[in-house]
From TrEMBL:
Belongs to the bacterial ribosomal protein bL27 family. InterPro entries: Ribosomal_bL27, Ribosomal_bL27_CS. PROSITE patterns: RIBOSOMAL_L27. Keywords: Ribonucleoprotein, Ribosomal protein. Gene3D superfamilies: 2.40.50.100. The lineage of its organism: Bacteria, Candidatus Roizmaniibacteriota. This is Large ribosomal subunit protein bL27. GO terms for biological process: translation.
Amino acid sequence: MAHTKAQKAVKGNRDSRSKRLGVKIFGGQSVRPGNVIIRQRGTKVRAGEGVLLSKDKTLMALRNGTVKFSRKKGRQFVSVIST
């Protein structure tokens, strides 16, 4: 029978909160220094010019400009082009 014992939470009923990963600012959009461009686990996208790779692999803008995504030798890069 599917029921809870003494109105407590079921043993397997726990789940973690989502981490809100992904692209926050897309290609062609403008950024300011410190803006988060991508939150990621691992280096799926690598840092190009004007982008900082933080300790938790988050990519952040280092200068004012426009976000540009590119591909080089099968790897994806993101850079900030000054305007």
